[in-house]
Every structure is written in C-alpha cells, then in structure tokens.
Amino acid sequence: MKKYLNRGSLTIEASLVFILFTIGYFIVNNVAISIMTESLTRKALFETGLEFSTYIEVIDKFEYTNSLKTTTFDIKEYENIITDGIGKEISFENFNVIIADLKRLLKHDMSGEFKKIVYNNILKKIFLVKLNDISKNFNLNKSTIINGITGIEFFNSKILENSNRLEINLKYKNEIGKFGFLSYKNEVIQKFLIDTWIVNHNKKHKKSIWDETNFERGRYFAGNVRKNDKLIEIKIGKGIDLFDFENNTAIKVYSINIFEEFYSNKNLDKYQIKEEFFNLIKTYKNKFKKDLIKYKEIESISGRKIKLNNPKTKLILILPEEAKKLSDIEVYIKKINDIIPSEIRYMEKAFNDN
C-alpha cells in the first residue's frame, strides 16, 4: 500500500514540475518575444525617422503653401510630393485615405491638426514598410503586441514645431503571459528625435508671429490671452480657454491672419475680405458648440469646478494690428458678431515695416 502511495506522490510531483516548467517556458518565451519586438520596432522607428527627415524641404514648403487651403486645390499637383520615397508597397487605396483626410481637414480645420493626422498616416506607412523589411523571419501579428501591427500608433509627433526639430513618437501595448492571473500588460513608448538643417531657412522667412504655422501662432496668442485676462482660465483639453462666471459665458480664443490670400484679396490698394473668412468663423462656432455639448462640468487651472448650465458662447478673435486700419473693418466685425458674439483684438504686426 505504501508503495502505491509513493508512486502517486511522485506522479503528482512530476505533474506539478511539468506544469511549472511549461508555464515558466511560456513566460520566458513571451518575455524574449517582447524584447525582440521592442528591438525591431525601435530599429524600424529609427529608419523611419531618418527617411522622413530626408523629405524635410518638401515638408517645410508644405507648412507655407497657401494654395493647399484653396477650394481649387488639385491633389494631383502634390501627389508625387506626398508619396515620394514612401515605397511601391503603398497602395493607391491607402493613398486615397490619406488624401481624403487632407482635403477634408484643409477645408474645415485651420488649427494645424490636419498636418498632424497626415504626417502620422505617412509615418506609419513608412514605418510598416521598414518593419516588414527587418522582421521577415518574425511574425509580428503573433508577437506580444495587443492587436498585432494594427495596435502600433503614432502620436503627438512634432514636425518642425520647435525650430528645426523632428520628434516622432509611437506606442503600443504588450501582453506578456496570457495566463489569466499571471498575465501582465504594459505600454511601450518609443521616440525618435533629430535636428535638421532647415532652421536657417525658417529663420529667414519668419519675420513675425503671423508667419508661424497656425498651430504655433494659435498656441502663442491663446497662451497670451489666457495668462493676461482677468476671467477664469480653464484647463487645456476641453476646447474652452476662459469662462466668464458672471455672465455664464464660455470663451474660446482664435487667431486669424486676415491678410492671407485665402481670406482676402487686394484690389486697388484695398483689402476685400472673402466669404471664406466668414465660413471659417461659422466652422469655429460649430466646433465650439460641439465641444460644449461633451461636458457637463469643466475645471479651472486652480482646480475650481464649474458646472455648465447652458452657457452662452463667445469668441476672442486675434487679428494682426494692421487690420484695424481697414476701411471696412467695422462692417466685417458686425458680420462676425451676426454669426457668433465675438471680441476682436489686434495683436502684433503681420508685415515688415521695412
């Protein structure tokens, strides 16, 4: 009887050892795959950044191409510029997806966000080509990345936002183990930074804040107003800059260079404001109202909670100093206020005095 008990005990011990060995093997194997995946994605990101930086002259011109904003925009003129060097692996269907985003956002979003979406799309296309080249013997869809290669995301990439620098960021989530309570998830974030030669080119052309990209200029003026105004400053991220508690009014700050060709034309030394300018105001109004619907409560930078009870809306529109000298400026201001209550402020010159 004792002999059989010993045999049973040995069988149980052997089973436990086998189970622990199997689990240990799979965990070690998953960790090894995770390390390999991080190494491959880091190398692919590095190669993506280097290739993307070679297009820097085109990218810099893209930042200042006014014709991209016009209703007569012909994508065929820019097709080669956008796709040059990305590789034959990019299908025309994927290219059309990028172009659809570009054309829609060019018309409806003047904050610079459209560039981020397009750049991130192009970056991912280049990245996937690079990743495929360096991982031919490694199936990433069977890796520890949650959702495989579709789970890899480019985010908050900064393209020439800080002088001459490119900052490219990607992230994905790993799941190591997959054994229920032994499962472990973590987020991997990788970054590529490079300074380019384009700094001198930018310095030569940027003579005022109004020559900056819409994003940089908007951030500059909104920050200025938020810090110096006496109203309640709201935490960034809600689509609201200030709140007038006394008048139950939410306020958003926008800056528009009224002298851009897209918004005005010069006829016999007189600027005439185009309808596109007022269409932009309508876009801002609609976006503002959509942002307000999302939240029942907002918070000031000091931590004060503010409940939104059907607040009124108001825009603070920053225009170049020269705009106040336009002969019909009062007519334009009235038309703006017919769309949405607005306060016009004139800040910094758009033209060089020389």
Low-pLDDT regions = 64-73, 84-90, 107-111, 199-205
Number of strands: 13
Distance between the termini: 108 Å
Structural class: alpha+beta
Order of helices and strands: HHHHHEEEEHHEEEEEHEEEHE
**How big is the Rg?**
27 Å
Please report which band the strand proportion falls in: under 5%, 5-15%, 15-25%, 25-35%, 35-45% or over 45%: 15-25%
Strand order across the largest sheet? 5-6-7-12-13
**Given the structure, what is the number of helices?**
9
Number of domains: 2
Output mean pLDDT. 74
Largest sheet: 5 strands, mixed
Oligomer: single chain
Assign a percent range to the helix content.
40-55%
Which helices and strands occur, and which strands form pairs?
Layout: H1 2-53, H2 56-63, H3 79-83, H4 92-108, H5 113-134, E1 153-154, E2 158-159, E3 165-176, E4 184-195, H6 199-205, H7 214-228, E5 232-233, E6 242-244, E7 249-255, E8 264-267, E9 270-273, H8 275-294, E10 297-299, E11 305-307, E12 312-319, H9 329-339, E13 342-346
Parallel strand pairs: 7-12, 12-13
Antiparallel strand pairs: 1-3, 2-3, 3-4, 5-6, 6-7, 8-9, 10-11
Helix pairs in contact: 1-5, 4-5
Explain the overall architecture.
This protein is α+β, with helices and mostly antiparallel strands. Strand 3 and strand 4 form a beta hairpin. The strands form 4 sheets. It has a 5-stranded mixed sheet with strand order 5-6-7-12-13. It folds into 2 domains: 1-195, no CATH class; 209-346, Trna Endonuclease, Chain: A, domain 1, CATH 3.40.1350. Mean pLDDT is 74; it is low at 64-73, 84-90, 107-111 and 199-205. The chain is 44% helix and 19% strand. It is elongated.
